[in-house]
Amino acid sequence: MFRTALRNVLAHKARLLMTVLAVTLGVAFVSGTLVFTDTLKKSLSGQSAKDYAGVAVSVTSYGQLVNEKGEKEGEPGLSQATLDKVKALPGVASVSGRVTGFAGVGDENGKLIGAGWSNQGANYTPVKDGKDPRYTFVAGAGPVKADEVALDKATADQGKYAVGDKVRVATNGPVKEYSLAGVFTTEDGAVQAGGSLVLFETKVAQELYLKPGYFQEMSVAAKDGTSAEKLLADVKPLVDSKGTRAQTGAALAEKQAKDIEKGLGQMGTMLLVFAGISLFVGIFLIYNTFTMLVTQRTKELALLRAVGANRGQVMRSVLTEALVVGAVSAVVGLISGIGLAVAMRSVIESFGAKLPGGDLVIAPATVIAALVIGIKVTTVAALLPAWRTGRIAPVAAMGSAHLPASAKSLVVRNVIGSIISAIGIGLVVLGVSSGGDNGRMTIGAGAFFMLIGMIVLLPLLSKPVIGAVRPLLQAVFGIPGKLASQNAVRNPRRTAVTAASLAIGLTLVTTLSVLGITVGKVVDRMTTEKLKADYKVSMAGGMGYLDRSVTETLAKTPGIKAVSPQTAGYFMVGDDFRSASGVNPAGIGQLLNIETVSGSVDSLGKGEVLVAEKTAKSKKLDTGSTIKVKYEDGKQETLRIGGVYKDMEGLLSPYVLDDKILSQHSEESAVSEVYVNVEGGASKAGQQKVVDALGKNPAINVATQQDMRNEMGGMINTMLNVMYGLLGMALIISVLGVVNTLAMSVFERTQEIGMLRAIGLDRGRVKNMIRLEAVVISLFGAALGVAIGIFLAWAVGTTMAKSLPNYELVLPWDRIGIFLLLAAVVGVLAAMWPARSAARLNMLTAIKTE
C-alpha cells in the first residue's frame, strides 16, 4: 500500500504541485518570520551585550517624580556629587555619567540626516587615558570645548563633513554651529537604527538636555577581582531613591534583550497571523485536491478493496500521499523561508534602517515548526477525503457511482452553520454595544465564528445566489452562460470550498480598506474643517518638543499675522490629573475653528478656561462654573469656565487656557506644535518665510495643510499596502483552488462535454462555459467576502466613533469594484488550463468515457 501511495503521488504531479505550492507559501512565511526574528533578536541582543560589556553597574535616574499632591519630589538626575561618592568606593575602577536627547544634523542642503526618531545627542565622557571606550575615533578626537562636537562616521559621510568643518546642529532650540572635532564609529543603537549621534562636551549636553551638574545615567566599571553583585550592593545605598534604579550591566543587557524579544514578538505575531490565514485558505485547496484525486481513482480503489485491502488500508494509503506531499512542501517551504528572511532584511535596510550584522539563525524549533505545520496541515485537510474513501463500497466504486451528499447530511450541516453564524453575529453586536478595546476584541471573536459559519453554510447559499444570476448569464452569453451557472451549483460542497478561500481573503481586505479609508476621511475633514492655520511647525519625525523661542521668533517676524503654540501640560482637578492645552488667546481663533456650545473663545484672554463638551457633561460643568486646579509646581488656583467647545481630539486637550498661565507653572518646555498664518495666505513664499525665520533649522518641520493630510493619509495607505501584499498570498492560493475545482468539474463531465460537442457546441463555447463557471464561483465568494467585510468594518468603526470626531462610515465603492473585478480576473486566469483541456477533448473518446 505504501508503494501504491508513492506511485499515485508521482502519477498526479500537476495537481499535487498546486497543493505543494499552497502549503509551501504558508510554511515559507512561518519559517521566514521565525528565522528573521531569531536572527534579529540574536544580533540586537549581542549588540546590547557589547554595549554593557565593560559596565559592572548601571544606574538610571527617572528625574523628579510627581506625588499624589501634584508636587515634584527628588532631584532632576544624578548629581556630580553622587558620581564622586560612587567613584570613591574601593572596588570602582571608573565612573561615567551620561545625558541624552534629540540632536539633528543638516546636510549641505539643510535637510535632516537620518530618521528623526533615532537622531540622538549625548555627552562625551573620557574615563581612561582621555578616551571614552564606547566610541572609536577614525579622525580627530572627542569634543573638549563648548563649541565642539563629534559625529558618527555614517552621518559625517552623508553630510560630507570633515574634521574642522562647521556643523549646524539643532536640538529643540535654535540651530547652532559647532566645530567638528572628530568622527567615530560606534555600536550605539540610534546609529544602528539609521539615525545619527552627536557628541557634545558634557556641560553643554547637560544644559541642553537636563540641568548643569546632573546626569540621566551612570556607568560603573569594576576593578579586577570585584564582582558586579558586590559593587551593586555598595552602590545602591548611595543612589537609593524613588527616582533611580541600580542594576548590574549584565542584568540591564538581559532586560534589553527581553525588551527586544517582546518587541520583535509583536511584529512576528502579526506576520504569523497572515501566515496562518494563508495556511487556513490552503486547507480548502488541499481538501479539494484530494477529493478530486480520490474521485479520479474510484475504480482503482475499488479494485484494491476487491483484492483484499480493508477500509483502514485504503484510508491510510490516501493519508500517506498527504504525508509525502506535506513533507515535500515543508522542506521546500523551509528553504524558501530562509530566502524570505534574507529578503525581509534587505527590504528593511532599503528604507534606511541599519540592522546589526550577524549570521542567519536557523533554530531547531524553526525546522521542527516548518515540518510539523507542513505535514499536519496537509494531513488534516486530507483526512475527510481519506475517510470518505474508506466508506465507498467496492461494488458502488466499480460502477463509478459518485453519490452526492445525502439530504440528511446537508440539513445537519445547515443547522450547525446557522448556529455558528448566529453566535458570530451575536458576538459582533455585543462588541458594538460594549465599545472600546474590549468591544473590538469581542468583535474579533465574532468575526471568527461568522467566517466559520459562512464556510459551513456556503453550500446552502450557493444555489439561490448563483440561481439568481442565471437569467442574466443566459441572456448575455446564451447556452454557455446557462450551462456554466448550472455546473457551478452541481456540486455545492465543492463550489462552497472553492468560494470560501476567496471569501476569507476578501473579508479581511474589505474590512481593512473600509476602515482605512474611513479613518483617512475623518482626518481629512478634521484638517479642512477644524484647522484654519496655513502651517504647522513641529519637530522633525515627531521627536520631542519645540523650544519656546520658536513661538517668540515667529511672532516677531514681519509678514506673519497670527501665531499660537499648542503647549501640552496638565493640572489636577480635584484628585484627577487632567491634560491641558496652552494657546495664544489673540491668535488661536484665527488658526483653529473652535466651535463653542456656550460662552466664547475670547474668554481665554481674560484668564478663563475652555472645557470640551464631553468633559463638561461628565463633570457637570457649564459656562460660568469654577474649578479649582493645582499646577505642576504645586500652586493652586480657581479658574472660571469661559466657554464649552465641541471636542477637537487630536488638536486640543479637554481643558484649554492661556499659554502664559500654563507655562509659568512648568519648568520644562512642552510646545508640541506652533500654528502659523501668514499675510496673503498659504504659498511657497509664505512657507519659505517661516523656514527662514527659524534659521533653516533641519530639525524643525514646517507643514502645509496638504502635508498634514498626506502625512496621515500616507501612513494609512502604507499600512493598507502592506496588508494587501500579505493577503495577496492568500488570494494566490485561492486561484489554485479555482483551478483544481474546474479541473475536477471537467473530469466528472468528460462524457457530458463530449455529448455537447457532438450536438453542436463548438470549442469556443465550451471554453466560455468553463470560464463563466470560474467567474461565477469567484464572484460568489468575493461578493460574500465584501458583504461580511463591510459589516465587520461597520462594527469596528462604531467602537471607534466616540474617539474620532465627525466619524462617518465611508464605503470606497471604487476599491470594492476593483476587488470584484480582480475576483473575476482570478476566475478567468484560473480557467485557462481547464477550459483548454475541455475544449481539446476528443468527442468520441469522451462519449465512451464511463
Automatic annotation (TrEMBL):
It is a multi-pass membrane protein. Residues 17-237, 495-685 form the MacB-like periplasmic core domain. It comes from the Bacteria. It is found in: Cell membrane. Keywords: Cell membrane, Membrane, Transmembrane, Transmembrane helix. The keyword ATP-binding does not apply. InterPro entries: ABC3_permease_C, MacB_PCD, Macrolide_Exporter_MacB. Belongs to the ABC-4 integral membrane protein family. PANTHER family: ABC TRANSPORTER PERMEASE YTRF, MEMBRANE COMPONENT OF TRANSPORTER-RELATED. This is ABC transporter.
